[in-house]
Amino acid sequence: MEDLAEAAIAAGDTLPKIDKLDLASIERLTESAVEHENLPALMSLAKINKYAVSNTLNPERLISLGRVAGSGGVFTPRLFFIMRGVLDVKRRKILKRLTRTSILKLSLRIASEGLRGDLPVRGEYQPESDFDLDATMDQLLEKYPTGIPTLRRSDIIGIERRERKKNGVLIVDASGSMMGERNINAALSAAVMAYSMRHDKFGVIAFNTRAFLIKGIKDDLGITEIMDKILDLEAVGYTNIEDGLKVGALQLRNLKTRFKWAILLSDGAYNKGNDPRYLCRQFEKLHVLNLPGKKWGERVCQDLARLGGGRYVVVRSYHEVPRALMKILRSPW
User: What is the pTM assigned to this prediction?
Assistant: First the structure.
């Protein structure tokens, strides 16, 4: 069995299904996985026995994974959440840095596809701008009711394309799982939000048993600080959507504009706090990305989006979340 695993590691493949390996075998295979920079195999070994992997992953071996860890996949973040409880402070810090790099690279690639929409602003026509035919005709009829003399450029209504300012909060479910899937999803979504709204006002709230204000809507917080706060959250099993929405609504109250919105990422299956649907009236617009989960949670998510006047989007896997989020961010109104 160990020979088959060694061959798979050397070939860059995932490990075959392994029923049992002794401590010494896992330690040897861990050394091989690091040597071949095979992160999927390393994560599989950690799931079998994270303590044996911890015995082998010294700081030098972790640092040597830096090149492949920064490729933007999810294997480094998953490894971090499996291993963080058994690593000492120094090694946990190294793996956390690699995890942050992986998430930031992936989120930057997604955000660079373009998120900002244009806001059409009407004014005097300029040669480089579009013009509004209907508005131009209305203006001409109003100015010259008895007939149009020579048409001048000032009579034409132009359309200037300006970037629409964004003001919103991201409210993400970070309740627990063994590999920290919700936390990874929260960190990746927050990074996409931060890249796309770096010139705008935005807040980030994560919740599990209770809500955590990761970034206040008026806070000047760097993207790496946002990542660190989310990665440090404990992966607990409870889901308190009510508290997440309360904190999000409170943040939006600090903005004077009415063009403000919230995006909730959750499976809707709350098991802590009250039914959150009564809070929808506190939002100008509440969009919902429905994460994979229970059927009754889908109904909660549908109701939250309907009552909040926002869009409802179902994602079938966590890999779909960042681009679904990106579509809403393009045009949150």
Answer: 0.79
